[in-house]
Structure formats: structure tokens, C-alpha cells
Design brief:
This protein is α/β, with parallel strands linked by helices. The protein contains twelve helices and 18 strands. The longest helix is centred in the middle third of the chain and has 18 residues. It is globular.
């Protein structure tokens, strides 16, 4: 069995490296068995929030960067980002670790625009060309993975889906675009032996389970008409875990399972131990994997785990029994507090400080320039915010929608031009919004809609106006 069949760069297009299926194995043209062991190149041509740190989808992250940087700087940033994210040094490092493959997830937006469907862009193909050649120079196969398809083929963020609805399965237009893209990809790479195969859809989630089978058959036929030899890696339904609806295996196809351990999620318990009401140990993990891989074992086809999740038994460098702190969900105010100079500051998922509880220390007051003058408290019942300050009046001509955005029943404070807080690491208006009244509005809003205070103005550090007072 060959784990890392390295090739000299002069012979990296040697057809003897091409993979095909032989029973339940992948073998080269020369008959060597190959077990694919590698990594996924996440965060490059498909930017996911848990990798980039931005609590949303790639489309919304790019929109935010474009708004902050401007179009010219945005273009320059991503040109450099896409160029240096993965280089020869990275491929050499993976090969030295004994790996032999890289799964390359990509977003359809690199290849076409929504307002010009079916008109493919060369830029996306050039990016794939470079990563395939880079990997081949170091004996690494590549698996091409369409991670985000037009119309959203699953309901999650990793398909660049901000709606939590999958339109792909009910609109033929989106399916036609995916078939068209894969026909072009297959035609471009059909002669490249270091492309291990094509992974047409990552973690599809057809709600009815009735459309994924016919679509796979259509896609298989379209690709085989162009490229009869490359392996197809087809994920199961329900995020590559369910294969019950599939009939006999399609020729030249590996069915792909994703196996995330229940004890590896942020809300899990200790391992071994209880996670989401189940006792998770080695036996449970093995039984779960065998259940998910039953279709492949029954049909005698190769088993390939396209993604898996590890178990962190000792997180954070680990004392036995230590527990991970769950991350706040996007769109909700954070419940975590950080202490700065004796003051507790809530931090939201964007890293901004949000309105909320502060430490009960004397000597903290609103700077004079931020206080409202007499008669400028605003409408009755809405003037006072916190114990020591007043809301500043809205500027003349301020848009009503802007003043009312945020928590229902609470109008954000008027603000001066945006400032940058170096500790928050992001630009935000330098206004004032805090106090018990805001906290009560946040709680009412969370109970009512489950959404966050998107329009609240983050607070700036309060300036001490006198000597510190003794603790109470």
C-alpha cells in the first residue's frame, strides 16, 4: 500500500499516478493501492466562519470588508490573500508529514456571478490550476470539492447560505448551473492524473430525500460524457451521513461519509462521558461510524471519510476534566464578560463591547462632552440612560429608520463620527448606551425574537473623573 507516492516534478503528469476503483480500494494505473490521507484546504476558496472568525457567511464577510476597505483595497487584499494562502512550502510540509492528498473546497462565486449565470470566469480555474500543480510537485493528490453551490444545497453557513433555506433542490435553474460548472471542470482536468477525483456537492441536504438520487444520476452522466475515468466522490444526504435512499452504486464512484464525533463539538461534555444526553466513548464512536458506513460495506465500495471531527479530551492544553466554553451564536449578544481595569465589559460576536452590566465601582462617570444639556433628553420616558448620563439628541435630519434600528422599544443614542477602539479591533461609533434599562430591553427582545441587538451602539471606555473610591 502506497501512502505518499511521490513523483519527480518532470514526471508528475505520468499516467501511472491516475487513480481508479478496484473493488473496495483505490489503486493507481500501475496497480499500487492508495489510501488517501490528507487535509481540507478550508478558508481559502471557501471562507467559513469558524476558520476566518467572522460570524457569518462568506458573502456577508466580503460585503463587510468591501464596505470598510473600499473596492480598490478590497480587490488588492483578496488578490494577495488568494495568492499566498497555500504555497509550495505548505505542500512540502504536508508531504513531509506523510500525507498524500488535499481536498480543495471552493465556492461557485469564483467561477460565475449570479447576475451572469452560465458565463464562467477564468479566474477560478486559474486558482485551481495553481493548487493542483503545487500539490502534484510534492506527490499530493487533490480532490475538487464544490462546497458552496448556487441556490444553497444545504441549510448551513458552510454553503455560504445566510437564509437557512435550501433552494437548490426545488429550482431546476440552480441544478443546471452546477451541472454546467462540473462539465467545464471535468473537461479542464480530465487529463490530469494528480486530480484524484471530483466531489460535486459537499454535505448535501435534500429535505425530502427524493431529489438527491435523480440529481446525482444526472450529474454522473454529464461528467462521464466528458471525463470517463476520474473518480466521483458523492456525499450522502443529510450532510454526508445518510445513504439509505441510494440504489445500486454508480460506476466509478466512491460514496463519502463525514464523521464528526459527538464529543468534539463546542457544547459537548467530557470524553468519555455525557454529550447531548448520550454516553460517548470509543465503543459509541465505532458503532456510529459503522452505522454511517453501512451502505459502503454492504455494496463493497471504498469508504472515504471526507471530513471528521476530533475528540478534545483535555482542551486548552488540558487539565483532565476541563470543559470548553461554548461560543455565542451569531446574531445574539454575548454573555461573556472581560475585566478591564476593574470593569466588566460584555463583548458581542463581532468583538465590540455591547450595552450591558458594568462593575459597581464609584468614580465612573460619563464625560461632560457626552452629557445631554437641559431640555435635550429626547421624548418623555426615553431621556435617561444609566445612572449618570443622558442620551444625546439625534442630529438634525437623522433618518427615522436609523434612529429606531436595534432593540424594539429602545432607540440607540446619537453618535459622533466612527472611531476605532484598538482593544475592540474594529471601527464602531463612539456613542453611549448602557444601564439597566438597556439590559431589560435586551432580555425582552431575546425572549420575543431570539435575535440580537444589531443596532445598539457599543460603549466606549468610561473616563475616571476623580480618585478611585474604596470598594463597597
Amino acid at each position: 500500500m502506497t501512502l505518499n507516492p511521490r513523483r519527480d516534478p518532470l514526471t508528475m503528469h505520468d499516467e501511472s499516478a491516475r487513480l481508479h476503483i478496484d473493488g473496495d480500494r483505490l489503486v493507481t494505473a500501475s496497480g499500487e493501492t492508495v489510501r488517501l490521507r490528507g487535509v481540507g484546504l478550508g478558508g481559502w476558496m471557501n471562507m467559513e466562519n469558524f476558520i476566518t472568525g467572522y460570524p457569518s457567511t462568506e458573502e456577508l464577510q466580503r460585503a463587510a470588508l468591501r464596505r470598510v476597505l473600499g473596492q480598490d483595497v478590497y480587490d488588492a487584499f483578496f488578490e494577495r490573500f488568494l495568492e499566498v494562502f497555500f504555497t509550495d512550502d505548505d505542500a512540502r510540509f504536508l508531504a513531509d508529514l506523510g500525507m498524500n492528498s488535499v481536498r480543495v473546497p471552493f465556492n461557485y462565486r469564483h467561477f460565475e456571478d449570479d447576475d451572469r449565470p452560465m458565463r464562467l470566469k477564468e479566474e477560478g480555474f486559474l486558482l485551481l490550476d495553481r493548487v493542483i500543480e503545487t500539490c502534484a510537485r510534492h506527490g499530493l493528490y487533490t480532490v475538487l470539492d464544490l462546497h458552496a453551490a448556487p441556490g444553497y444545497h444545504n441549510q448551513r453557513w458552510h454553503s455560504d447560505n445566510p437564509t437557512h433555506r435550501s433552494l437548490f433542490w426545488t429550482h431546476r435553474h440552480f441544478q443546471d448551473r452546477v451541472v454546467h460548472l462540473w462539465e467545464a471542470l471535468a473537461d479542464r482536468y480530465k487529463d490530469n492524473p494528480w486530480v484524484a477525483g471530483y466531489n460535486p456537492l459537499n454535505e448535501p441536504a435534500d429535505p425530502s430525500g427524493e431529489r438527491i438520487g435523480p440529481f446525482y444520476e444526472r450529474l454522473h452522466a454529464a461528467i462521464r460524457a466528458v471525463d470517463p475515468s476520474h473518480v466521483l466522490f458523492l456525499d450522502g444526504n443529510r450532510h454526508a451521513t445518510d445513504f439509505e435512499l441510494f440504489a445500486d452504486p454508480l460506476p466509478g464512484t466512491v460514496y463519502t461519509v463525514h464523521d464528526y464525533a459527538l464529543a468534539g463539538f463546542a457544547d459537548s461534555g467530557d470524553y468519555p462521558g455525557l454529550s447531548r444526553g448520550r454516553h460517548v466513548d470509543r465503543d459509541y464512536l465505532e458503532a456510529r461510524f459503522l452505522e454511517r458506513a453501512e451502505y459502503m460495506r454492504r455494496t463493497g465500495t471504498p469508504i472515504w471519510v471526507g471530513e471528521f471531527g476530533p475528540v478534545y479530551s483535555t482542551p486548552y492544553g488540558g487539565r483532565p476534566g476541563a470543559r470548553r466554553r461554548p461560543l455565542p451564536r451569531a446574531g445574539r449578544p454575548a454573555r461573556h464578560l472581560r475585566r478591564v481595569r476593574g470593569r466588566l465589559e460584555p463583548v458581542d460576536v463581532q468583538g465590540h463591547r455591547v450595552a450591558g452590566r458594568r462593575s459597581r465601582r464609584r468614580g465612573l462617570a460619563v464625560p461632560a462632552q457626552d452629557r445631554a444639556r437641559p431640555g435635550e433628553e429626547g421624548p418623555a420616558g426615553r431621556g435617561r440612560v444609566g445612572r449618570r448620563g443622558h442620551r444625546r439628541p439625534a442630529p438634525a435630519g437623522a433618518d427615522r429608520a436609523d434612529r429606531g434600528r436595534g432593540v424594539p422599544g429602545f432607540r440607540p443614542a446619537a453618535v459622533r463620527p466612527a472611531a476605532v477602539d484598538p482593544r475592540a479591533g474594529a471601527a464602531h461609533p463612539a456613542g453611549r448606551a448602557h444601564g439597566g434599562r438597556v439590559r431589560r430591553a435586551l432580555r425582552r427582545h431575546r425572549r420575543g425574537t431570539g435575535q440580537g441587538a444589531g443596532g445598539l451602539v457599543p460603549v466606549r471606555p468610561l473616563r475616571r473623573t476623580g480618585p478611585p473610591s474604596p470598594r463597597r
